[in-house]
Amino acid sequence: MTSWLDHTVNGLIIGNIYALIAVGLALIFGVSNLINFAHGSVYMIGAYTGWVCVAAIGTPLPLTLLGVVVGCAALGILIERFGLRPLQGAPRIAPLLATIGIGLVLEQIAQLIFSPDPRALPSQLPAWRLPLGSGSIGALDLFIAAVGVVSTAVLYGFLRFTHLGWAVRATAQDRDAALQMGIDVHRVNQVVFAIASALGGLSGVLVGMYFNNIFPAMGFQATLKGFVAELIGGVGSVPGAVAGSLLLGLIESYGVALLGTSYRNLFAFLILIAVLVWRPNGIFSSTRQVPPEPLTGTFIAPSKPVHVPRWAYAAATAIFLALPLIWRDSYIIQTLTNAWLYGMLALSLTLVAGTTGQMSLGHAGLLAIGGYASALLALDLGVPVPLALLLAGFITAALGTLLIFPAFRLRGHYVAIATLAIGEIVGLVILNWEGLTRGPIGVVGIPPLEFFGLPLYDTSALYWVSFTIMVLLALLQWRLTQYHLGRALRAIREDDVAARAFGISLNRYKGLAFAFSGFVAGLSGAITAHMYSYINHETFNTQISLLALTMIILGGMGNIFGAIVGAVALIGLPEMFRAVAEYRILLYGIVLLLLVRFRPQGLMGTV
To answer: What is the rounded distance in angstroms from the CA atom of residue 514 to the CA atom of residue 470?
Structure first.
């Protein structure tokens, strides 16, 4: 059995790596008040830059690290200059969405260049290990610890003793006052992004050497771990980020020793939720700190919705209902069926994020709850499929609202992070609760959809069922938002403080919005499970949540018809042009960036 000393050493080493990520995130948040979702992609680029240096060029370790630092610092400057600076006058959520798009683009470019397959990144240090009590410590362990300590010391000296460091600290304390004192805040932003990206890239190459493995999707989990570490220590606090990272590394290492590696990420996200709920300013922060400010209006840009006459809705419905009778291509029909299922997901998200102003990045977790609930009800309890679908919707509504309820008291960026963590927790619980969910094997042999006892295998029949359910849900959502409920939700979106002053119960109406949203998303996940007869913990991943977010921004936040238009545009069109299927996620990222920059109100306008 591995000694506890080994687990302690491993925890501290991993904590040092997390610290390089978290410090960069803290610097960026301190100066720009921005949670940078692209930071993990820079971390991944650093790992691949190291691989090119080591495997392709054969540079010695000092030159490898220098190449990573310089390359990632340059990438950070480009992200700040061309991706984020043009959004200075936009709503505060816009840069956050832009970083999501930048992250998608960088990840897909790496995947296209290097392929999705993992690659080995060998350590350039000797493989000796030094016995230490009942454990041991290796050269790479000592090197990572030294890099963490030296990087922290250099950063401290820079911020404490240099004129540019003073400018960074002044900008972090009061950006407007720094601007009035003659500080070039654009230069400060560039410097901060360069430093943060250099540290992120350095951590990426060190992780690659430590585990001898890198892959294009490695940045997402690293970003989440950096967020957790930063939040534990206090958002925007560099010392807090270091302390939080070391604490997170130790908790993960001890947790793995007790329960196994499959629980490693679950510890991080549970800690994140606990910190967000009970001490959102961080456990190392002062209790006198002001709570985080809200992101007023989230992402609602002033616009007039595109007017569509009712006869046009009726005509479009009739055309799409008749399409399987006119167009016999089963692949196209199946593609549009998928678009209708994503349309349901987009409907559920646009009610929460668009109408209510609660930015959710974990909606794929609701799909997973609905899919597993319906599949297990039908398989294990013999519930008829139509009833299982309906029950799955109600189960998702209840369980999803219960899970998100602790986040109702959060504001701003914290809501997005909390929902993202909850979505990840759902997937990890599904992975580890083998007695109920079958664990990594997944659920097989799920009964097909049926109509009055007759199984539906025909592609056209599945198309009609999905389209009809989506239209009915859209009409129900439209009806709900036309009267008092819709006005109350939009009031919360625009100014929750003013809404509460007018007697609107924030928790009640947020709960209603998430309950209906969960019902719609759960129904979509349930139909998906029965349609494909197999699901596992990876079927409904976080990438689906980001795709749904792109859909509702494309269509127009809060716009019901726009959500469906966005689903058809991002699911139907790329599938119809199969030659670009390999570039689909890259396309999503580019579309998100262009929308945030040039058409924030979406194609159909916001409501």
So the answer is: 18
Under 8 Å between Cβ of 338 and 575:
yes
Label each residue of 96-146 as H, E or C. Answer: HHHHHHHHHHHHHHHHHHHCCCCECCCCCCCCCEEEECCEEEEHHHHHHHH
Distance CA 83, CA 467 (A): 37
Residue 450 is inside which H or E element, if any? Answer: strand 450-451
Supply the CATH classification number for the domain 326-598. Answer: 1.10.3470
Map out the domains of the chain as residue ranges: 4-278, 326-598
H helices of 279-412, where? 310-326, 330-349, 364-380, 385-404
Contact 533, 448 (CB under 8 A): yes
| Cα 128 to chain centroid, rounded | 39
pLDDT digits (tens, 9 = 90+) for 280-304: 777 776 554 444 444 434 555 556 7
Partner residues linked to 138 by β-bridges: 129
Helix (H) or strand (E) run with residue 455 in it:
strand 454-455
Shared fold status for 4-278 and 326-598: yes
Q: How far is CA 570 from the centre of its chain?
A: 18
For the stretch 343-356, pLDDT in tens is 999 999 999 988 88
**CATH code of the domain occupying 4-278:** 1.10.3470
Q: What is the DSSP letter of 503?
A: T
pLDDT per position as a tens digit, 84-137:
999 887 776 788 888 988 998 999 899 989 998 999 998 888 877 777 666 678
Question: How far apart are alpha carbons 141 and 134 in whole angstroms?
Answer: 16
